[in-house]
Protein 1
Amino acid sequence: MRAVEWMPQNRALRLIDQTRLPGESVTVDCTTVDEVVDAIVRLVVRGAPALGAVGGYGVAVAMAQAEREGWDAARLDGEVRRVRDARPTAVNLAWGADRVIPLMGEGIEAVITESDAIMAEDEAANRELSRLGADWILAHTGRDKVRVLTHCNTGFLATTAWGTALGIVRELHARGVLELVYADETRPLLQGSRLTSWELTHDGIDHVVQVDGAAASTILRGLVDVAIIGADRIARNGDTANKIGSVSVALACADAGIPFVVAAPSSTVDLSTLSGEDIPIELRDGSEVTTLAGVVTAPDGARGFNPAFDVTPSRLISAIVTEQAVVEPDGSSPIDALVATS
Amino acid sequence: MRAVEWMPQNRALRLIDQTRLPGESVTVDCTTVDEVVDAIVRLVVRGAPALGAVGGYGVAVAMAQAEREGWDAARLDGEVRRVRDARPTAVNLAWGADRVIPLMGEGIEAVITESDAIMAEDEAANRELSRLGADWILAHTGRDKVRVLTHCNTGFLATTAWGTALGIVRELHARGVLELVYADETRPLLQGSRLTSWELTHDGIDHVVQVDGAAASTILRGLVDVAIIGADRIARNGDTANKIGSVSVALACADAGIPFVVAAPSSTVDLSTLSGEDIPIELRDGSEVTTLAGVVTAPDGARGFNPAFDVTPSRLISAIVTEQAVVEPDGSSPIDALVATS
């Protein structure tokens, strides 16, 4: 089972509908740009690495639709751009689209093959960064069994397979050195309680779900050895955008003196973004805050303020892990060591 | 309209059912100890100052029930203790009960009169601490209009009238110097979005509701001038227990260099508790985390971890305000200046 899959028979992008989990396990097939964009915007598919693959296959969907409906080149370019820019914060979506766009002239099969490569590379990156991250954590916590706090969902649902921060959790579990996971529920859309807990339950990994407001005190009370989160974009100076609530975990880790680790494939590192101030933060509809699962939680007329991401300054990050390297932002290694030197 | 009211006709403790707000505005009349304890445990009534009055009137309910049902003294003592100890963290509940227990020998009317005095004193304290708090904030932010962040509900619903932290907000609004309130929704039970937003909407005070995870970034982005919270117990060294999520707001304020203010009546100061480590933290049922308004938000079998409060160390608190004084824990005034010297 994968969050993102290409269906050659009907030239469809098949996605696990993550808005329906954990109650229902269903997939949706996107065969039009409208469907792809809608799936991205409604978070049927989310997670920076998964969005990288969606950026690639989304271009293929546009090309197939163009062929069926006889679009001219300008129309196709506009529709490809709609896919590429459907969400602003995670750099991977644009990165995935930009990687296949130069191949459009070679035909849809070339675009699909390149998207398949994005998938394969992401999975390999996740597995490698999980090994590097687990090594770093065991070396720096000095514990036989570690208690991990994580925020949002960074597992196979957020990636092409395995996971980033949750990939490290899986690696620690596989090595028999994981004691317990504290999963922040991650309001407003509850990716932690709906998705992370679902993945951990499936894998038989011992965990508890807590409200986001509990993270700081859980850390300050000494119940956690390390916090590990994913990333939607890592700037050249190490500042990292991730799901709203992440910087609050980082502040607590700094105060408690435990490591705060960011895990992502190198495709999430954006050396053209100089610092966190240059990362666009998606402001989503306030109704996501004032309702939950269809239940209205605030009085009539109340306005929700709903930034989807926050920026953790690099000074609060102990280590950033990609498949290429582990960089300690306060140390001597430059951030560009996180990216392959090709 | 008051959150807590004594009904002499039927010797009942009348409470606004805060679990039903903002959808429904209904009251419940408690005429038995079981009903009083159930209302406290289910958070029909909550908020440290309101619980002080409930502690007093709850003893009166027990006495009335004892009279009707012919309890002996030992039974009555046991039932009074059940009211007093129905929740562990807020010191006010036990404080209110302990204040009227010595009067039980004088009869139920003496207990009711003393409980009425608790109500009147709390309202007066709220109004006075609101003035002191507003003065301190305007002096220390140096702004003409202030943008305030608050957590949980500390308004008239949490007190006998007016409010503590929200009383300061009301005072700032009355003075025409309030720009905007950021109200944290306060998971798991959403006292912020359900109750604070309801009170602010009623008073026409401009505000937005945000998820608790957004508080830190809202503060770090410079959108807030001061955070003001209430307290469930203030220890002798200034460490303060308050609704889960409060310490995370304090960490962000410290990092951003803006004031973090605690507001409470002097009845919340417990000089017999030496530090935050000595404050019992209520661990509530995990299902409050894994569900919301009847909607299951986590997979089958997922466990919720649900501490209801956290402790903010005094080093992170800029000022503690009671009706007696404003104390800056890092300054020279001792914490006992917060309590009346009688």
Protein 2
Amino acid sequence: MSGFRIALMQTRPVLGELEVNLSLMRELAAPHAADLFVYPELATTGYALTDFANARAQAEEPAGGSGLEFLQELAEEKSAAVIAGLPLHERGALFNASALLRPGMAPVFYRKLHLFYREKDLFTPGDRPPEVWEWRGLKLGMMICYDWVYPETARIMAHDGADLIVHPANLVLSHCQRAMVTRSLENGVFTATVNRIGEERYPGEDPLVFTGGSQVTTPRGELTVSLPVAETAVRVVEIDPAQARGKSLTTRNHLFADRRADIYGDPLPDRDG
Amino acid sequence: MSGFRIALMQTRPVLGELEVNLSLMRELAAPHAADLFVYPELATTGYALTDFANARAQAEEPAGGSGLEFLQELAEEKSAAVIAGLPLHERGALFNASALLRPGMAPVFYRKLHLFYREKDLFTPGDRPPEVWEWRGLKLGMMICYDWVYPETARIMAHDGADLIVHPANLVLSHCQRAMVTRSLENGVFTATVNRIGEERYPGEDPLVFTGGSQVTTPRGELTVSLPVAETAVRVVEIDPAQARGKSLTTRNHLFADRRADIYGDPLPDRDG
């Protein structure tokens, strides 16, 4: 199988500046070719949103919105899939979501299951499991930032057949990048963590310093690339999705067959049980 | 709360030499004081056992055996808990087990859930979840070596209240030590991985080189100590069990309360559900 190219788009969004951010996203993508372009969490709006009405005004609706239309155009233009974090307004609630856009296809979404800190003031936690979608023969799922702490998140997607877990993030702590190596190993999948850089501040609080270091990890626990911690950067990484499909650690050990569902259940008990 | 002292006993067992190994275990412990002495996986017998009758002859029975009696004496002598990996013969089967001995108390066991490579020829996989026991105010659970790959193992014990996950190992691959930092972080627990050193060989195969590097990780993802990769070594590490009890990553994030059991179930669905 030929390689699948992931473009890690490590940006510095400007808080509350939707149009500026969308332009920067396109500009940064312009010189690059890839099968998938990945942007950070809340890439269209910035992170430290606090006011519901204001956030809603910048949010996308599942059926569309200026950001989604823009990203769909970008997907068509680049003939590639695009994943970006954005606020999603749906059923009267705001979700910290990521959207997957593919040329000629309707957008699909993941809604963050585990909200971090003051995100809880604004967003509703996701109300359904992460799903797996296909693009150019590769199966991918999405999770967002703090979801990394919960091994169940990646587990569900890996058992649904994901080759790659795409992980838009706005990280401020230092442990995630190393932990994603473990998420790759324990599930036999690739992961692509795309973090932002720069600083933002909730009113009256210390600044949040986002830590970059976007990366791709392999099913064998290798870190293929690590972007700078404080610069806007793009890197295209080519992976071989077939490496995520063997699941054999030794000739006698298959990652999934060795799982003890008889003891601790299935990753999604309601569906699998 | 005063500190709880864990002695990491990184040994080099001699294959098939029960009496020699027990003597070495005591000798190595002699100069040290601790609340808990931890030895590697299959510390009493060595690792590359292949013949059932031979392994059974060196195995312990739940009600006793020369190794268990010895370890119980060691526990009384040191006025400490002792954990060691050993083969356990029970109900006609052999388990790759670890035993917890405490002064004045009956031994309790964990039977390895996930068997690695040729262990499958000899051992029966454990048939019950890991449990949590108490010693001097600290709650601990046990898992063995390759169990580290399965996040469910540590998860079950953490949710049963474990402060410390004790992890006897005979590691030959290189990823475990870093992954245990993730196990600590995601569960807010201490882990103590005690690995062996030296080489063994299954007949007709390349040698297995055990990689030492015994360590303790903290609920905050710190590595407190890392023993040499190729030497017998002892290190006593003092931990504060209270650090494993807050489970708060931020003022708004509680590791367990943020878990989405409504989506992916409880760590032990049959018991909790």
